[in-house]
Every structure is written in C-alpha cells, then in structure tokens.
Amino acid sequence: MLTWRVIEPGPPGSRKFEAREEPAPTAGTGELLVRVRACGVCRTDLHVLEGDLPVHRPGVVPGHEVVGEVAALGPDVRGFAPGDRVGVAWLRGTCGACRYCLRGDENLCPRSTYTGWDADGGYAGYTTVPAAYAHRLPAGYSDQELAPLLCAGIIGFRALRRATLPAGGRLGIYGFGASAHLAAQVALAQGATVHVMTRSARARQLALELGAASATGAADAPSEPLDAAILFAPAGELVPPALTALDRGGTLALAGIHLTDIPPLHYQAHLFQERQLRSVTANTRQDAHDFLAFAADHHLRVTTSAYPLGDAERALNDLAADRVTGAAVLLP
User: Fold this and answer.
1) Cα separation of 144 and 171, whole Å?
2) Cβ distance 56 to 117 under 8 Å?
C-alpha cells in the first residue's frame, strides 16, 4: 500500500516527507484494521510535518480524519464487523484512571495518545484504531464529506462550547478554514449571528454564502461587539484585536494546537470587564458523539477539495499557502 511518512520534520526545503510502498498493518488486541476510504488534511498534520509539534513517533504516518471500512478485527473486539464504515479521529487513547479521565475530561489525560502523532494515521491505504476510540458515522454524507467532521468538525464544536456563546448571541470567527466553516454552521443553526474575520477572499465569500452576517479582513473590527469569539488561525497576533472586539463578559476561545506568540496584552483594553481567554485542548469522545449526532440531525455543507493520496505533499503545501477553501481530503 502507498504510505506517507514524516522522516524528518522541518520547513519546506529541509524536511523529509516520503511516499513508500509498504505492507498493510495488522490489528492488535482490541483494535480494528481499517481500509482508508478518505482522509482529511488538517493543519495539525502541517504542524507535525513542519516540526511545530515535538516528535512523538519517529517516521510517523500523519492523518487523523479517517473515514474507512473495517477490514479485520483484532482479538477481543466486540460491536464491529468487517464492512462497517467507521471514523478514526485525533484522540486515540487515554488511561481511563487519572483524575481527568474520571471527571469526564479525558482530553486532559497526561497519558493520552493521538492518531498521526503517537501512532500511524490515515495517509496510507490502511490504518488501525482501538475499537473503543472508533466512531460510528452519520448517514447522508459521502466519505469525502465525512472526513473533515472527524477533527475540524469535532474541534470546532468543542471550541464553540468553550466560547460559551449565549443563546442568540453574536459570534466572531477568526480564520475560516475547515474547522471554522463547520463551527459557523453549528452556531447559525443554534440562532447565533456570525461575523467572520479572515485574510482569504475566497473564504470570506464562502462565509457569506453559509449565512455569516459579515466577512472582513483578519484583523478588522466586526460591525458590532461580540458575545464570544473563536480564533482558528494559528496567529497569535490576532488575539489582541479579537479580545478588543468582545463585549463585556465575552469569551475568546483559542482552537488550535499550535499558536504563534501572542503580543503583550493590556489589562484595560483587552481583559477588563470580565473578558475571558480560554484554550482548547483536543476533545473527548463525548464531544465527538455529540457533534456527530448534531451532524446527523442538521445536514452540514462540507466544502472540500479532493487530492489523490499520492499528492499529499501538494495538499499540505496548498493548505499552508491558504490555497484550500474549506477542507482538503486525500482519496486513496
């Protein structure tokens, strides 16, 4: 099978990202062997490739938005059968015994592991997943549409929860890629007014088509104060203008796993009047369940650009250069 491996992370020109022909893996105890039918290209994959995240597994296969078909069951697997369509997402394992897991915050588990970082992911013909972390997928979507739901959708959903948007509130979204265009639809379905700030003209057009009240430049002030905001762009310099745009008591959620340095904040201008700044760390399986149930009940418009698996590096370069509208998806 064709497999992409991050041999040496780094910036373009110095990194080593190789496509190889390899045998398919085998499912271990409690695992599913999954034939990959689609794999989304997430900005986190780019952070793994460029070395923004520390190496957890040398030579890892990236990709954690995997839609596939169960090809085989490892020992001690119940509840799945060959041929089932399943999703493989970012969260791959937790200890189940620490205080974070026991209180329902498994995303904060110190021993958590992740697909495409700690274990090989979906930039390949086959991958494996612990059955306890495989997801049932909603009907009514193609494989290509489902793939971005498995990280972009889930993380956007958690970020929206972390932003504590009140009912009928005003939401600001900074950056409008794969995750943001799905979170915006969730917020709109819940009755919010959405304002989008992003540098991409194509993304601004998509935002307006989806129902945003406005779509302006990345650092522009929205037309009204915001009750909540989510920063999806990995750009720390956008934190001060996003905080300034908040109304009293507003919350800014930072949705990315990586962010460039945040400039100095001024208490009176950015945080006073009980404005809040909150980060988002991975997701729980309950987040995934709740979001996928929402997607089943509210058909989301998933904007994608398809690439053959052999063009994975081109897809990542297009993502880095903001040449992708919506989500890039690899099709083996």
Assistant:
1) 28
2) yes
The parent domain of residue 206 ranges over 154-279
Domain shared by 272 and 292, yes or no: no
> Distance between CA 5 and CA 331 in Å, rounded?
17
Shared-domain flag, residues 139 and 168: no
Rounded distance, CA 88 to CA 207, Å? 28
10 and 140 housed in the same domain: yes
146/12 same-domain check: yes
CATH number for the domain including 235?
A: 3.40.50.720
Is pTM, for the whole model, over 0.85?
yes
Task: Find the helix packing angle between 154-162 and 178-189, rounded to 10°.
Answer: 60
Q: pLDDT, tens digit, for every residue of 167-198?
A: 999 999 999 999 999 999 999 999 999 999 99
pLDDT digits (tens, 9 = 90+) for 257-304: 999 999 999 999 999 999 999 999 999 999 999 999 999 999 999 999
Cβ neighbourhood burial of 176 (10 Å; 0-12, 13-18, 19+): buried
